[in-house]
Amino acid sequence: MPDNIAEEKLQKEFNRWAEEGRGEEMESHHLPIVEPTLALMRLRPSDRILDVGCGTGWLARKIAAQVTEGEVVGIDVSDEMIRRAQAASAGTKGIAFRLGVAERIPSADDYFTKVISVESAYYWPAPLQGLREIFRVLAPGGSAWMLINYYRDDPYCHQWGPLYNTPAHLLSADEWAEHFRAAGFAEVAQQRIP
């Protein structure tokens, strides 16, 4: 599945995280910023949601409980994360997981009503291309929601970069917003969630 060396390295690192049980930790770490975001997203029962960088699928399962007539699809570069997401979600209606990367989303054009990505975009080898793909798979009038805690405007997080075993893009909030606009998005906004 990896198309290049950067994706292969990312897959190996996140497979290691999965084997160490770190995928399951993500829910408790990210829930405080995810819950307010889900409220802002105003999920509808018929929504078709894509979770980019879904890990073990905790967020997809949370969303599936609200999207009872629609569909939730999670993609991740890590085949081990996907395996764990599928196992943990067995029997959950309206949910699917696929091996994939943001830069090449395995989906038809104009399909999803909403896309969410939690703490994964800075790992994407080509963030602008990932956002272009998200724009491609969003239905007209759809929205994309990206949660990022590793960004230039937060000096506290700068210490994390050297700890990562894969490259991570340390962009400012304005640089991310410009990437969204360059990918085709309109009405780009940002909000800090303490």
Features:
single chain; 194 residues; alpha/beta; five-stranded parallel sheet; 6 helices; globular
Structure description:
The chain is 38% helix and 17% strand. Strands 3-2-1-4-5 form a 5-stranded parallel beta sheet. By secondary structure, it is an alpha/beta fold. Helix 1 (5-19) packs across helix 4 and helix 5 (127-137) packs across helix 6. The mean pLDDT is 92.
Task: Give the topology.
Layout: H1 5-19, H2 22-41, E1 48-52, H3 58-64, E2 71-76, H4 79-88, E3 95-99, E4 112-118, H5 127-137, E5 138-147, H6 173-183
Parallel strand pairs: 1-2, 1-4, 2-3, 4-5
Helix pairs in contact: 1-4, 5-6
State the gist of this model.
Helices cover 38% and strands 17% of the residues. By secondary structure, the chain is an alpha/beta fold.
